[in-house]
C-alpha cells in the first residue's frame, strides 16, 4: 500500500526532527571505508548532473556575451557584452513571433487544457462504475511521444489525405498554412496535456480529506460551492505544481513542432530557434546562447517556485 | 505522515475507499455523467483508433474510396513499414540507449537519495535542490555547450564509429541519465525518508557497512517506487526525441522515436503506411502502459514534474 509519496504532503518534519541528534552521532561513527562510500555515492551522481546539466547551463550564459563562431578557442577579445541580446531582439525576425507563439502556447495550456483536465478529474473522482476505463482512455495519449502524436494527428490534419478535410470538404493545409498550424499543433498538444493534468488533480483529489466535503455538505453547500470554497483551496500545492509544469512545458515545447516543419513558417518557438542556430553548420554560438539564456532565466523563476513548494516540508 | 502513505494509489481507486456519504444511487445525474464521459473517452481515443484502423487498410482501396470509407483490409502495411523503415535496427538502437540509461539513472539517483535520506548533512537540501532543479531546465538551453562538449570529447573508434561522443550512443545515454537522475533522486529520497531510522540503527549494530545498508536494506524496501520510476523512465527515454535528433547525425543510429522524422519522407504519400509505422512505434509504450498501468500512474504522481 505504501507506494505513493506525493512530495507535497511528504513526510512530516516532526518525526524527523526527533531523529536528528541520533543521526548526527551515526555520521561521526562512520568508518573510513563508509565515509569513502558516502563520498562516492554523492560525488559520482553530482559529477554527472553538474557536468552535463549545470555547467552547460552556466556556459550558455557565458557564451551569450561572446561572438564565438565555434571555430578555434574562445578568446577574451570575443566578449561583446550585450550585443547578442540587442541583435536578437531587434534584427532577428523570428524572435518576436516565437515569443508570441510561446505565449499563445502557454495561454492555451493554462486556460484550456488545465480547466478541462481539472474538470474531468472532478468527474472521475466520483468513484463511479467504469471510472477506471474512462481514466485510461483519457490518459492514453500521455504514454505516446509528442513526435508520434505529430504523426497521428497528421492523419487528421493533412490537406489531401486527412480526415478533417475529407469530412468538411475544405482544402486547408492545417499543418502547413501559417494561419492555422499553430492552432492545429495546439489541438494535438492539448489532447495529451489534458490527460496529464487530469491525473495530477485526480491524485490530489484522492488525498483530500473526505470529512471536509461532508462538513461542507452538512452546512448546505452545493457541489460547486464545496469544490471552489473547500476542495480547491486544499489543493493549493497541486495547483502550484500544475502551474509550474504548465509554464515549463510550454517553454520547452519542441518535439511536435519540430516534427511538423522544424519550427518554421508560423511555428517558431524559442526552443526551435536555439536549435536552428546550433545544429548543422550554422554555428551562431553567441547568438544562439542569448536565446538559450532567455529560456534559462524564465525557467529558473518557475524552478525556484517549484522547489519552494516541494521542499517546504524539509525547511525549518 | 501515515495519512499520505496509507492512502490508495491513483491507479487503483478502490471503490471501498469511497466514503459512504458520497456514494449515490443511480440517478438521472449519474446517467448523464456516464453518457458525457463515454463521449469524451471516445473522442479522446479517436485519433489513436483512426490510426489503428487505417493501418489495416490497403492504399489502393483508400485512394479510390477515400479515407472515410470501410473496407480494403490488409496486413501488408505492417510488413512494408517494418522493412522500408528499417524498424529492426531502430528498435535495437532504442534498446541500446534506453536500457543502460534507465539502469544508470536508477543506480545514481538511489545513491544520492540514500545519502540525503539516511544522513543529516548540512548540504542535504541544497544537494537535493540541485538535482531536482536540473530535471526542469529546458534541454534546448543546454544544447550549445553540450553539443560542443560532445564534439570535442574523443573516444576510441571501437566505442563509437564517429570518434567523438557526438553521434554516439554513449553521449545519448549520458545526457538522458543526467536529465532523469534529478527527478528520480527527488522521488526516491522522499520515499526513503519514510523508512524508519531504527532499521538503520539495527543495521549499524549488526555492523553492516553503508554500502550494504544501501544495497541490501534500502533498495529492497524501495521496490515500489523503483518499479514505478523504471516504468516511467523506459517510456520517457524511449519517447525522447530532442537529444537524439540533435546529437546523432547518422540516420542509422537514430532510436525509433527520432527515426520517425526520417521515415516521413518515404511514408509521405502513403498514409496507411504512416499509420502502420506509428502503430508499431507506439506499441512498446502501449504494452508497458497496459501491463504496468498501476506503476506508471503512481510514478507520475510521485513527483509531478514531468509529462
From TrEMBL, chain A:
Keywords: Cell membrane, Membrane, Transmembrane, Transmembrane helix, Transport
Family annotation (PROSITE patterns): ABC_TM1
CDD domains membership: TM_PBP2
Topology relative to the membrane: Multi-pass membrane protein
Pfam families reported for this sequence: BPD_transp_1
Region (Disordered): 1-26
Protein location: Cell membrane
Span of domain ABC transmembrane type-1: 99-306
Keyword tRNA-binding: no
Main localization, broad class: membrane
Transmembrane segments: 36-59, 103-124, 136-156, 182-205, 226-248, 285-307
Family: Belongs to the binding-protein-dependent transport system permease family.
Protein name: Sugar ABC transporter permease
UniProtKB/TrEMBL annotation, chain B:
Pfam families associated with the record: BPD_transp_1
Membrane topology term: Multi-pass membrane protein
PROSITE patterns documented for this protein: ABC_TM1
Listed InterPro entries: MetI-like, MetI-like_sf
Cell membrane among keywords: yes
The keyword Transport is annotated on this UniProt entry: yes
TM region(s), chain numbering: 32-53, 91-116, 123-149, 169-188, 271-292
Subcellular location: Cell membrane
Annotated spans, Disordered: 1-23
Key words, A-Z: Cell membrane, Membrane, Transmembrane, Transmembrane helix, Transport
Signal peptide interval: none
Residues in ABC transmembrane type-1 domain copies: 91-292
Biased composition (Low complexity): 1-20
Tree of life domain: Bacteria
Family: Belongs to the binding-protein-dependent transport system permease family.
Name of this chain's protein: Carbohydrate ABC transporter permease
Lineage, broadest ranks: Bacteria, Bacillati, Actinomycetota, Actinomycetes, Mycobacteriales
Amino acid at each position: 500500500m505504501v507506494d505513493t509519496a506525493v512530495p507535497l504532503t511528504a513526510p512530516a518534519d516532526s518525526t524527523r526532527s526527533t531523529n536528528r541528534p541520533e543521526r548526527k552521532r551515526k555520521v561521526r561513527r562512520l568508518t573510513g571505508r563508509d565515509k569513502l562510500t558516502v563520498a562516492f555515492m554523492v560525488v559520482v551522481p553530482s559529477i554527472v548532473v553538474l557536468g552535463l546539466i549545470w555547467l552547460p547551463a552556466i556556459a550558455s550564459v557565458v557564451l551569450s556575451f561572446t561572438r564565438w563562431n565555434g571555430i578555434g578557442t574562445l578568446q577574451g577579445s570575443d566578449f561583446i557584452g550585450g550585443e547578442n541580446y540587442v541583435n536578437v531582439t531587434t534584427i532577428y525576425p523570428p524572435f518576436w513571433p516565437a515569443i508570441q507563439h510561446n505565449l499563445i502556447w502557454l495561454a492555451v495550456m493554462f486556460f484550456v487544457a488545465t480547466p478541462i483536465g481539472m474538470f474531468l478529474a472532478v468527474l472521475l473522482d466520483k468513484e463511479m462504475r467504469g471510472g477506471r476505463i474512462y481514466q485510461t482512455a483519457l490518459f492514453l495519449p500521455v504514454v505516446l511521444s509528442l513526435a508520434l502524436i505529430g504523426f497521428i494527428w497528421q492523419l487528421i490534419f493533412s490537406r489531401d489525405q486527412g480526415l478533417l478535410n475529407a469530412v468538411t470538404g475544405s482544402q486547408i493545409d492545417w499543418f502547413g498554412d501559417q494561419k492555422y498550424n499553430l492552432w492545429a499543433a495546439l489541438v494535438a498538444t492539448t489532447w495529451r496535456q489534458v490527460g496529464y493534468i487530469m491525473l495530477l488533480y485526480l491524485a490530489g483529489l484522492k488525498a483530500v480529506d473526505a470529512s471536509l466535503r461532508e462538513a461542507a455538505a452538512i452546512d448546505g453547500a452545493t457541489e460547486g460551492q464545496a469544490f471552489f470554497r473547500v476542495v480547491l483551496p486544499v489543493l493549493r500545492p497541486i495547483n502550484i505544481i500544475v502551474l509550474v509544469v504548465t509554464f515549463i512545458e510550454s517553454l520547452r515545447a519542441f518535439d511536435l513542432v519540430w516534427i511538423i516543419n522544424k519550427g518554421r513558417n508560423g511555428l517558431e518557438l524559442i526552443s526551435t530557434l536555439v536549435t536552428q542556430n546550433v545544429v548543422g553548420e550554422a554555428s551562431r554560438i553567441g547568438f544562439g546562447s542569448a536565446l538559450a539564456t532567455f529560456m534559462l532565466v524564465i525557467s529558473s523563476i518557475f524552478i525556484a517556485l517549484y522547489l519552494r513548494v516541494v521542499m517546504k516540508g524539509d525547511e525549518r | 505522515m501515515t495519512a499520505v502513505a496509507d492512502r490508495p494509489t491513483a491507479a487503483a481507486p478502490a471503490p471501498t475507499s469511497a466514503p459512504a456519504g458520497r456514494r449515490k444511487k443511480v440517478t438521472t445525474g449519474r446517467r448523464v455523467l456516464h453518457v458525457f464521459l463515454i463521449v469524451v473517452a471516445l473522442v479522446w481515443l479517436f485519433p489513436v483508433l483512426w490510426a489503428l484502423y487505417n493501418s489495416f487498410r490497403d492504399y489502393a482501396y483508400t485512394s479510390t474510396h477515400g479515407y472515410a470509407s470501410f473496407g480494403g483490409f490488409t496486413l501488408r502495411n505492417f510488413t512494408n513499414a517494418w522493412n522500408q523503415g528499417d524498424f529492426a535496427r531502430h528498435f535495437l538502437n532504442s534498446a541500446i540507449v534506453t536500457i543502460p540509461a534507465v539502469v544508470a539513472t536508477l543506480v545514481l539517483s538511489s545513491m544520492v537519495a540514500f545519502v540525503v535520506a539516511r544522513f543529516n548533512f548540512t548540504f542535504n537540501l541544497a544537494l537535493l535542490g540541485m538535482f531536482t532543479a536540473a530535471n526542469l531546465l529546458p534541454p534546448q538551453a543546454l544544447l550549445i555547450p553540450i553539443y560542443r562538449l560532445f564534439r570535442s570529447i574523443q573516444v576510441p573508434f571501437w566505442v563509437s564509429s564517429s570518434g567523438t561522443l557526438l553521434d554516439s550512443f554513449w553521449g545519448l545515454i549520458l545526457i538522458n541519465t543526467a536529465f532523469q537522475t534529478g527527478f528520480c533522486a527527488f522521488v526516491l529520497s522522499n520515499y526513503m525518508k519514510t523508512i524508519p531510522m531504527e532499521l538503520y540503527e539495527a543495521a549499524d549494530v549488526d555492523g553492516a557497512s553503508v554500502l550494504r545498508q544501501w544495497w541490501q536494506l534500502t533498495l529492497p524496501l524501495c521496490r515500489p517506487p523503483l518499479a514505478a520510476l523504471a516504468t516511467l523512465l523506459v517510456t520517457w527515454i524511449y519517447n525522447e526525441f530532442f537529444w537524439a535528433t540533435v546529437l546523432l547525425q547518422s540516420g542509422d543510429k537514430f532510436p525509433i522515436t527520432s527515426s520517425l522524422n526520417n521515415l516521413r519522407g518515404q511514408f509521405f504519400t502513403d498514409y496507411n503506411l504512416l499509420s502502420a509505422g506509428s502503430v508499431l512505434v507506439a506499441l512498446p509504450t502501449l504494452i508497458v502502459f497496459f501491463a504496468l498501468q498501476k506503476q506508471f500512474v503512481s510514478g507520475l504522481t510521485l513527483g509531478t514534474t514531468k509529462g
